[in-house]
Amino acid sequence: MPRSEPIKAVRGVRDILPRDRPLWRATERAAAEVAMRFGYQEIVTPIIEHVELIERVGEDTDAVSKELYRFEDRGGRKLALRPEATAGVVRAYFEGGLNQGAQPVRLFLIGPMFRYDRPQKGRYRQFYQLDVEAIGSASPALDAEVIEIAAGWLRESGISALALELNSIGDDVCRPAYLERLKDYYRPLKSRLHADSQLRLERNPLRLLDSKFAQDQPFKADAPRITDHLCEPCADAWAHVRRLLDAAGIEYVHNPYLVRGLDYYTRTVFEFYPAGASGQQDALAAGGRYDGLAEAEGWPSTPAVGFAGGFDRVVDVMAASGVEVIAAPGADVVVLADGGQESAAAEVARICRRVRSVAVDYEAKSLAAKMRSANKLGARWVVMLSAEEAPRRVARLRDMASGEQAEVAWDELPERLA
Ligand code: HAM
């Protein structure tokens, strides 16, 4: 009798099975190739970080306030599973002394992130990001550069119909005065806003602009726009980024309500959607400039810009738009070992592996059953060994497509399979 029900995966997380991996591998490869083509180097940071580091990202950020996986380790340290990579990459940039070398430092990272979000299609509690960061320069050219990388990665993943939304949310110089204007505009409307928005009005009024609540929508159109209230350096940067995108032939739409869910942004913010889906669907990739984050983490003030893209969503869109990637077979060659021939089969497999991927079927099944499994694996060849042939170091090689079969000496197998 089983002791209990079988134990299933944790809610909101999932397995990526071998049949799905080819699409994942294709977009992961595109990500690394495009990033490296722009001179970005790979970095890996830990999945666990101090809770304090993550909180510096912004306590008003959903990913921190509501969705953070926090725990105490056995030594009583307060840790978090990273909800995003930027805070950790900035920490590593200083801790690893990258701030001492040539600037800016261009980095990319591929790995899992964790958010205690409500699970639904496109939203998982463990999900995977491509994170791209250019740290150590305030040049608007880098804002345009990371946008070009995001566009290039999505295009090379087979997603060509894209919508890019762009905005500037100013900086510490111009944003405070703008926020006062925004509060002045919304205060008389307070009672008509959604309860959550009423709370945000004083604490984080910028988020009123990207409110998804139906009752808040009518008031957005007349709200003051931050791009009309930028200080001169922010206005120059905003114009500069747009000029560079035009020059690069990257189309975008100015969305004055785009403010982003993370608190660390300054100036440029952007989001990529599948074309025709913005607002209704979740973004494929998103980011912006975050000149204040290094200082918030306790390091010297250092400008930076970057983005993160979600592999889970990109793979969904690839699959939905019919992107096909040829799945590699489980093995090119399957060696069938008759009873008692295990060590001979292992030796033949070792010889064949010089040129091909090889699996050995050790199961005590009929030849016909073994042939069927080899077919299911997608094997192109089967090598059969019998107790009579093994001592002579010969085997029968079968081409699964043509059905042709021939006796071949073990040492000639690599040549026949090449
Ligand atoms: P984010 O907008 O929170 O930004 O996430 C970036 C992308 O990660 C989203 O556009 C989406 O594709 C994916 N994503 C987020 N949450 C989930 C989820 N629960 N399930 C599946 N995919 C998800 C950041 O994380 C910033 N660190 C981006 C950045 C980098 N800004 C500057 N540098």
Largest sheet, in brief, is: 8 strands, mixed
Tell me the span between the first and last alpha carbons: 50 Å
CATH architecture of the largest domain: 2-Layer Sandwich
Strand order of the largest sheet: 1-5-6-11-10-9-7-8
Helix content: 25-40%
Count the DSSP helices: 13
The CATH homologous superfamily name of the largest domain equals Bira Bifunctional Protein, Domain 2
The succession of helices and strands, N to C, reads HEEHHEEHEEHEHHHEEEHEHEHEHEEEH
Mean pLDDT: 94
Structural class: alpha+beta
What's the overall geometry?
Answer: elongated
- Total strands: the figure is 16
Looking at the structure, the CATH topology of the largest domain is BirA Bifunctional Protein, domain 2
Strand content: 15-25%
Describe, in short, the structure shown.
This protein is α+β, with helices and mostly antiparallel strands. It is 31% helix and 21% strand. Strands 1-5-6-11-10-9-7-8 form an eight-stranded mixed β-sheet, sandwiched between helices.
